[in-house]
């Protein structure tokens, strides 16, 4: 019996455990219970109600939370018999769909939009074979490039591989309902189904009413099938692949269209101008319309932006009702021709609001109308004015002006949209002017105490002496090195490709090439870069490459997910039989992979491992790599992500302080009496804890540096001060619950300082407030 009490840890646990408790509690809600969830949790709940046997994925925004929540409920998944894998790349995750090809097994996989490129080869084979069970691919669609480096639409994979593509409205209940339909549609049509989550949809929060209890899968890791009888007609070879192609379009797509139409997956909202004829203000039956001269077609969460923009222009209400008939395509591929024809019947004008290019939806609708002989004027991106922007995200701001122009065609004498748009634009201009006074431009940069910053500090210092290198960048936190103060990332060709890029650059340019890569990226795809490089050089003189691997134990930029290089920190699981252990998102402790051992096994000879916070040793290793000037030199930067380390250690430190135990922390400060505001040290650091303030000395003008309390004591600002021979930075030891001897010595030191200054009062109020801080000398 599955009960909530089994999975709920005691109250008072740390934040991550409390979050896990909340996640599992929501997943265990009973049928008919109303729960408040976000979109990823709504999808997981729908999957558990559908009886999934497996879940896999590679984390990436805007759906990184989905993998996080699966990890938080890993105990529940194991008890249900569900296989969960946090894959090292998207292709590995996609292979799990194979289970649904040969048997009635249900499951889903997840990655962000660009991950479809990595998984494409596997998807081509899976979609050719088709499925017996249900297979759903949850894709973090991010055409807005809020957390992705390129504009890309998943639609091309849906159309190219024949995968139905569901694009839900930004509402948890809507996403939950369509996620359940995705599993049913997949099984009914014998095809995988792609479910898109845009940033707006992925981050929405609301309530859902659970339609069913969660189910144990028929086939599970606890109840494995004994028989294996593969249907070899599903095997993708030349002869079967031709049959699969015929089957896709003669059987699977028609079945998908039948399911979409019969279950009314697309939303039809009758406009107020058509209400009296239809007798309903909100109907999902497209055939119920008795005619209206104007119609709008949107898709997915663009509906949210569209309705908000129409509300601002006085043509919709906050409940989603529009003056004109509206068809929102929740399934953007395949588009059911009969639905489009019925919606367009009798309409003089059709306005298509589609995000981004290419214009797949608009092109499909125009083709359907042309084939049906419907002569409605179609307005969108392509012709008749080109109202909708061809590229870019369609948020409310982007839609206001195009929709105002569209409405001027429909209602030339109705001036409210134009007047309202003018008011909004004036209000935005006033808001921008007012915020400019307080807004400070600041580039994205490395976190305080980041172990990657010392490497780029060393690179900048060495390049000033040896000449600028070519920098081959990659996907990770180190992409921020492209920005000031380092400006040390010239190229970016995709995740795990920096070393391959460096090989080509080094063979064509007589320059030193520095390639960087994180540990998560190394295991994602980077290890094959090493093989490719070693296979394509005959001797070391062919290339001049420094390869820097940041081994920070986490896939940090996507939300600190573990990878094969992660370390198990529990004393009971840190090692087994003398071998170091890792951690994975399923809550298991496999053997930890050694990047250095892998590189040596593949044939790399020049390897140095450095601690980035031992800056002088790091600089020495980097200098050695610069002096060699030929071959492949690898530097492994071994330092845990400070943000992850602080999240783990801070609750322990706070607990120790509360218990009266002695705790010592190190921070750095700037002496405001010495700092002159010249700032040459900033070109080597760029730490976000170092800010600029007005000089407090009334006899001086200008600005000086100041270190905020967010300082983690990494010491790089002190090192870079030495580069400029600046004495203004000093090191402070902060002792909580100091011993009596430490208190006595501190007071004695302060007394000596006062005496040397010639002051009578040996301990002032300011010093009492700072009691416990001990300056250990200037560095």
Describe this structure in words.
The protein has 779 residues and is α/β, with parallel strands linked by helices. The chain folds into four domains: 38-224 and 231-259, 3-Layer(aba) Sandwich (Rossmann fold); 266-436, 3-Layer(aba) Sandwich (Rossmann fold), CATH 3.40.50; 453-644, 3-Layer(aba) Sandwich (Rossmann fold); 662-778, no CATH class. The strands form seven sheets. It has a seven-stranded mixed β-sheet with strand order 3-2-4-5-7-6-12. β19 and β20 (579-580) form a beta hairpin.
Q: What labels would you give this structure?
A:
single chain; 779 residues; alpha/beta; Rossmann fold; 7-stranded mixed β-sheet; 6-stranded parallel β-sheet; 26 helices; 39% helix
Characterize this entry briefly:
The protein is α/β, with parallel strands linked by helices.
In the CATH hierarchy, the architecture of the largest domain is 3-Layer(aba) Sandwich
Provide the CATH top-level class of the largest domain: Alpha Beta
Helix content: 25-40%
What gap, in angstroms, lies between the N and C termini? Answer: 63 Å
CATH fold topology of the largest domain: Rossmann fold
Number of strand segments: 27
What would you give as the CATH superfamily of the largest domain?
Answer: Thiamin diphosphate (ThDP)-binding fold, Pyr/PP domains
Strand content: 15-25%
Strand order of the largest sheet: 3-2-4-5-7-6-12
């Amino acid at each position: 019996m599955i009960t909530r009490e089994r999975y709920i840890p005691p109250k008072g646990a740390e934040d991550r455990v409390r979050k896990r408790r909340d996640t599992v509690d929501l997943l265990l809600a009973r049928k008919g219970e109303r729960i408040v969830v976000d979109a990823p949790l709504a999808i997981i709940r729908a999957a558990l109600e559908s009886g999934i046997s497996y879940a896999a994925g590679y984390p990436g925004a805007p759906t990184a939370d989905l993998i996080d929540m699966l990890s938080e409920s890993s105990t529940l998944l194991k008890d249900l018999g569900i296989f969960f894998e946090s894959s090292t790349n998207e292709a590995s995750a996609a292979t799990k769909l194979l289970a649904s090809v040969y048997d009635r097994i249900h499951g889903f996989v997840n990655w962000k939009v660009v991950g479809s490129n990595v998984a494409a080869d596997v998807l081509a084979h899976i979609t050719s074979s088709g499925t017996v069970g249900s297979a759903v691919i949850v894709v973090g669609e991010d055409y807005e490039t809020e957390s992705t480096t390129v504009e890309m639409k998943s639609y091309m994979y849906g159309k190219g591989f024949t995968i139905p593509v569901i694009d839900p409205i930004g509402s948890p209940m809507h996403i939950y309902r369509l996620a359940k339909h995705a599993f049913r549609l997949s099984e009914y049509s014998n095809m995988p189904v792609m479910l898109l989550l845009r940033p707006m949809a992925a981050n929405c929060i609301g309530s859902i009413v659970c339609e069913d209890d969660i189910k144990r899968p028929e086939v599970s890791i606890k109840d494995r099938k004994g028989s294996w009888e593969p249907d070899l007609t599903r095997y993708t070879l030349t002869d079967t692949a031709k049959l699969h192609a015929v089957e896709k379009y003669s059987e699977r797509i028609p079945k998908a269209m039948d399911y979409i139409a019969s279950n009314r997956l697309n939303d039809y909202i009758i406009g107020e101008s058509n209400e009296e004829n239809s007798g309903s203000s909100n109907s999902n039956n497209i055939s119920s319309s008795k005619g209206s001269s104007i119609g709008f077609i949107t898709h997915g969460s663009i509906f949210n932006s569209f309705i908000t923009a129409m509300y601002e222009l006085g043509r919709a209400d906050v409940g989603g009702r529009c003056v004109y008939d509206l068809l929102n395509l929740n399934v953007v591929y395949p588009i059911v021709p009969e639905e489009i024809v019925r919606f367009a019947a009798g309409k003089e004008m059709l306005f298509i609001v589609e995000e981004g290019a290419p214009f797949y939806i608009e092109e499909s609708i125009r083709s359907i109308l042309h084939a049906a002989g419907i002569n409605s004027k179609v307005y969108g991106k392509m012709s008749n004015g080109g109202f909708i922007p061809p590229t870019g995200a369609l948020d409310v701001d982007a839609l206001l002006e195009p929709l105002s122009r569209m409405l001027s065609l429909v209602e030339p004498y109705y001036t409210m949209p134009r007047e309202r748009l003018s008011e909004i634009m004036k209000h935005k201009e006033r808001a921008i002017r007012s915020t400019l006074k307080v807004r400070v431009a600041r580039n994205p940069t490395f976190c305080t105490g980041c172990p990657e910053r010392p490497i780029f500090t060393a690179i900048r210092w060495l390049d000033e002496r040896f000449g600028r290198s070519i920098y081959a960048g990659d996907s990770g936190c180190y992409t921020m090195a492209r920005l000031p103060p380092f400006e040390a990332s010239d190229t970016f060709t995709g995740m795990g490709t920096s070393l391959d890029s460096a090989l080509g650059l080094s063979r064509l340019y007589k320059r030193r090439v520095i390639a960087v890569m994180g540990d998560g990226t190394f295991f994602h795809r980077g290890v094959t870069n090493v093989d490719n490089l070693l296979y394509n050089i005959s001797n070391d003189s062919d290339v001049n490459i420094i390869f820097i691997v940041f081994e920070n134990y986490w896939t940090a930029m996507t939300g600190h997910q573990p990878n094969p290089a992660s370390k198990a920190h529990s004393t009971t699981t840190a090692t087994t039989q003398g071998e170091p252990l890792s951690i994975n998102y399923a809550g298991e402790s496999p053997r930890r992979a050694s990047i250095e051992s892998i590189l040596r096994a593949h044939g790399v000879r020049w390897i140095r491992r450095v601690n980035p916070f031992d800056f002088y040793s790091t600089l020495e290793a980097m200098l050695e790599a610069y002096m060699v000037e030929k071959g492949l030199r690898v530097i492994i930067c071994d330092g845990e992500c400070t943000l992850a380390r602080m999240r783990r250690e801070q609750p322990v430190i706070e607990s120790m302080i509360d218990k009266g135990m002695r705790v010592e922390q190190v921070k750095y400060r700037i002496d405001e009496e010495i700092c002159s505001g010249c700032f040459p040290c900033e070109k080597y650091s760029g730490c976000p804890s170092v800010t600029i303030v007005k000089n407090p000395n009334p006899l001086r003008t200008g600005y000086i540096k100041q270190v905020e309390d967010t300082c983690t004591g990494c010491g790089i600002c002190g090192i870079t001060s030495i580069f400029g021979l600046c004495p203004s930075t000093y090191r402070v030891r902060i002792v909580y619950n100091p011993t009596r001897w430490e208190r006595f010595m501190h007071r004695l030191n302060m007394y000596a300082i006062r005496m040397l200054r010639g002051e009578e009062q040996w301990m002032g109020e300011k010093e009492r407030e700072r009691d416990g801080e001990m300056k250990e000398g200037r560095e």
